[in-house]
Amino acid sequence: MTDITSQQREGFLVQGYMPAEIGGYQVKVDPYHVDFWSKAASGTWEPNTYKILSHFLNDQTNYCDIGAWIGPTVLQAAQLAKNVVCFEPDPTAYRFLRWNIDLNALKNVTSYSFALAESMSITRMASHRGKPGDSMTSLLFDNEGSGIDVLTLQWQQFLEMSPVNRFDFLKIDIEGGEYQLLPNLHSYLAKEKPVVYLSTHAPLLAPEQRVEKMQTLIDCLSVYSKCLDDNLQEIDINTLVSEDALQHFRSYVFMD
After folding, report:
1. What is the distance between the alpha carbons of residues 73 and 101, in angstroms, rounded to a whole number?
2. CA distance 17 to 161
């Protein structure tokens, strides 16, 4: 869906949703992100992400979406997986996430408005673009005037309370928060070996920190025998400290 007219936009607002095909499924989406949903529906937003979810998820899969934003991956995963558990700490984004879940009456989706991190705390986060609900809200930033205080929990603390405590697939896209989270996940990954689809954000780090932080990810994810790129081609895990990975946002799949 492209070239949305102002009249169409007004119509979506009146009816309370926009119809769209997301990840191959007809869904209803909130009418306040029309440009984004049009991009997702046209296949120009992270097409490999939708292909990866289609490849790995099935009706027996417990899927965990860490960094759900307004729900573009949740909407597809809910059609494929047995259970979907998702996290979005930004309260503005979470409001739209819940709207999109409710619009589609997704009974197999459970959502939480807190962040997973290295410790339990109340932590300030923000988007480096300074916009509430932005897709790049991150624990790396605490911009004065635009930051928000959010609850963070450790992964194990969440599991102790969660009705679903074993996941087959983890999608992690948290705008640099992965450098805090992955060490906390290490023992769980080593024991349970869920497939991990990880987006890395080295360009958001200071240049002098990038190799060390990306090496931390390698250390945590070396429990897996395979590292794949987002075309599902097997690569050396040490690619994560290559110049390309340090200078660009890249995504990887880890599995046995």
Report:
1. 11
2. 33
